[in-house]
Amino acid sequence: MAQTETQSTNAAEISVSELATALKRTLEDRFGYVRVRGEISGYRGPHSSGHAYFSLKDQNARLDAVVWRTTFLRLKVKPEEGLEVIASGKITTFAGKSSYQIVVESLEPAGIGALMALLETRRRQLATEGLFDLHRKRPLPFLPRVIGVITSPAGAVIRDILHRLADRFPARVIVWPVRVQGEGSAEEVAAAIQGMNALPAEGPIPRPDLLIVARGGGSLEDLWSFNDEAVVRAAAESAIPLISAVGHETDWTLIDHVADLRAPTPTAAAELCAPVRAELIARVTQMEARVLSAMTRHALENRARLRAAARALPSARTLLSLASQKLDSEVDALRAAAGGRLRERSLSLARLVRAFERRSPHGQLALWAERTRALGAKLSFDREARTSQGRQSLGRANDALRAGSHRAAERRGERLAMLARRWEVRMAERRQVPQTLQHNVARVDAALRRAIGETIRRSRISSANVGQVFSAVNYRSVLARGYALVLDHGGGALTRADDAKAAKSFTIRFADGDVAATEAPARAKRRAKPAPAATQKSLF
Fold first, then answer.
1. Residues 409 and 539 both lie in one domain
2. Residue 540: what pLDDT?
């Protein structure tokens, strides 16, 4: 029966490949270029080959999608799991799985809601990593010398920033031109932030002290480059403090959360990074005036306190009275000590003189002279005795020569000649002894004279030093400078006016003599005419 059904049809037999090719051609002709809206599902990132595979789905259907490597690199919006997008491309089939798929050529979010959902998802992910924490925010430099601006050089933003900086506080501005919208703009902004940080501090292009990333207002799609993850991470890794000035005051991007400071507009960013120079000058002038006023007030207060302390201090006479009494006591003690020291030095010097007299060179010379005379007398006696003995020996020898043979006479003559030579040598040695003694005596005399002179010199220096100290503390040197000393009948010093009035009569001691004085009655003072200076004897 199966054979009967096969023979009854007229359909031609074709292979599987031919059928797949026919279906592919029919599908591509019918749906050549389409835009499909759906949610991305099954996306695990790009394949090792660079291609990306995922699915687009809605409530009732599912469509496989593929993005070739070259297309994936050009996509403005990268695929993300769960993102609702509009995919544009061509419908084709994949014969290996008997399925159809879309070859995506472009992706775009399916409306503002999808972009906002993607933005919120990315914000939560970066916040979880701690990139938006407040403790990472750094203070801006007060007066930056070099300011780096990352923006488009053709827009009005850079002109507004330069104009505002020139009005407030001129600074050097380095502009890094980038695209702030469209394909590749996010990569350029991230590279500009990293390039500014890589500049050497002392290079031909100095490293900025502050960065401004600026762009004018626009829609969410226009500002989408500043929501890119690469831009946010580059801003977070920047070692230079960064101000985000993207869009208007109501526009928020992810770079605003990671920046050290967010400015509502690019012009406001210029105002935040540079103070007004005129206001600074006025503020410094005001602070200078306040400092001068505070210093003046402080000086006046110190002067008032010093005057109050001076009124509480005792008078100079009161302060000096105790010191004067103590000085007198010290002078008396020093005088007694100096006198005792002088007496002690005098006794010591007398003992030294007596000791030197006992060992004086004259006494030593007399002793050595007496010894020399005794030795000379002894030598004379010995010489006469030896001469007499020699004569006797010579006589005996002469007799022996006469009595003996000629040979014996010759031997005795030689022996006598040898004895004579020995005698002459011994006599020469004995004559040199007095010369050696005289040389030793002269040397001892010179040493004793030097020792006595040095001792006397040191004693004179010590006595002179004691005399200078005594003269320095002696009250007579004070009188020689024009002062006077008031003494009572017992010779005690009167240091107060009340003591002088109680004494009635006293003595005034000057440097050249004493003057007796008495207290004159008050009535006599008024009537008496002053005596001439040369004859006046009373001072009261």
1. no
2. 29
